[in-house]
Design goal:
Elements (H helix, E strand, L loop, with lengths): L1 H27 L11 H36 L3 H21 L6 H5 L1 H5 L6 H10 L14 H10 L5 H9 L4 H36 L8 H26 L20 H16 L13 H7 L3 H19 L4 H7 L4 H24 L13
Helix pairs in contact: 2-3, 2-9, 3-7, 3-11, 6-9, 7-9, 10-11, 10-15, 11-13, 13-15
Length: 374
């Protein structure tokens, strides 16, 4: 009997030790990373309600002002009205830079960017349209004869001086043709912008915000790809790389945005860059208020370092471009345009941060083909 109780005491003691040991080991086990507490829907709502839709609203308002300035010029084609028309054109063009990156949903359906900002302009075909009065601006083959670049030619490039341009509009046989064409170009831009604005307000906003999953077809994954595509292909390459000959080894000043104005290409680039950075930080349109954004997404991922690197590189690119003469001047006076190439390199550095580092941190796959190898 004593042997039995002795054995029982030993077994109970061992079980007690085993239980204590198990508890200790459990306390020491690494529980793993803290689950991500970032919801995508509030970010999508901030994008739609505070950035995208207000941007389109402002663009439509600017286009209304542009139409009014043209109406005055049409009524009396003098130099004062030409100057006012140019101011309204630039204001609208600068506003366009704020929404150009939003090529998703309604804008993607109508090809908004391709229809309002393809440059350089095909001057020969444009002049044929003016002379004949027989044209259809809805055809894809006419994209390089319309939009903001066509207006640039029509108000800045018809002559060597303002007097020469005014004389074009007042020549017998030309006046009505040129004015008719300008009116058609304006109507095309306004119709496209108004349709996109209306679609966002009436239906697409909810579709966009509610599609808050993490698949390749969800709104965040799709739009982040579109956002990076815009930065890489239209801001970096279109506004700087192609004119510099980065992809062809031949400088092409004629491919600069707003070529016929000649002075505002840098300003349009900076407007586009500011729009990209403000969007990254969730900054509301026309305000310093910020909401959920790609920056706050990185914070939730504990990647404040990458958030800061991206913002710092945007700032470096901006400072580099600030130090340049107008792009057309840089390209026409230097070959190679060393200073502009150096600024381009600063713009290029952000591509890897966005396309590789940020997408990797967010587990988003690239959905577009890199045609230039960068």
């Amino acid at each position: 009997m004593r042997h039995f109780f002795g054995t029982l005491i030993v077994l109970l003691t061992l079980l007690g030790c085993s239980s204590d040991s198990s508890t200790t080991m459990s306390d020491d086990v690494d529980p793993g990373p803290t689950p991500l507490s970032f919801e995508r829907r509030p970010m999508l709502a901030n994008w739609a309600d505070n950035i995208i839709i207000p941007g389109y609203e402002a663009l439509v308002d600017e286009l209304d002002a542009l139409q009014e300035a043209f109406d005055n010029f049409k009524q009396d084609s003098n130099e004062a009205n030409l100057m006012a028309f140019r101011v309204a054109w630039l204001d609208s063009y600068k506003l366009w830079q704020r929404v150009s990156m939003f090529e998703i949903g309604p804008a993607e359906s109508v090809g908004l960017r391709l229809n309002v900002n393809i440059y350089p302009v095909d001057i020969a075909r444009l002049e044929e349209h003016v002379a004949s009065g027989d044209f259809n601006l809805t055809l894809s083959s006419n994209r390089d004869t319309k939009g903001f670049p066509a207006l640039d030619y029509l108000i800045n490039g018809l002559g060597d001086s303002d007097a020469d341009i005014i004389s074009k509009y007042n020549e017998v046989g030309n006046k009505n043709n040129y004015l008719t064409y300008v009116e058609a170009v304006l109507a095309d831009i306004r119709e496209l912008a108004e349709n996109v604005r209306s679609d966002w307000r009436e239906s697409y906003r909810d579709t966009f915000v509610n599609n808050d999953g993490s698949s390749s077809t969800a709104s965040v994954d799709r739009f982040v790809n579109d956002y990076i595509f815009y930065y890489e292909k239209f801001l970096r390459a279109g506004k700087m790389g192609i004119p510099l000959g980065v992809f062809s080894d031949i400088q092409a000043p004629n491919t600069v945005e707003a070529f016929y104005n000649g002075e505002v290409s840098n300003e349009l680039f900076q407007d586009g860059l500011n729009a990209v950075q403000d969007f990254f930080n969730g900054k509301h349109f026309g305000s310093n208020t910020t909401g959920e954004s790609l920056a706050s997404y990185l914070e939730a991922l504990d990647r404040q370092d990458l958030r800061d690197d991206i913002n710092n590189q945007f700032n470096s690119a901006r400072n580099a471009v600030d130090g340049l003469q107008p792009f057309r001047t840089e390209l026409e006076t230097s070959n190679p345009a060393i200073n502009m190439l150096s600024a381009y390199d600063e713009v290029q550095k952000a591509v890897r941060l966005l396309k590789v580092d940020m997408l990797s941190a967010m587990s988003i796959s690239v959905d577009f083909v890199d045609a230039d190898g960068d």
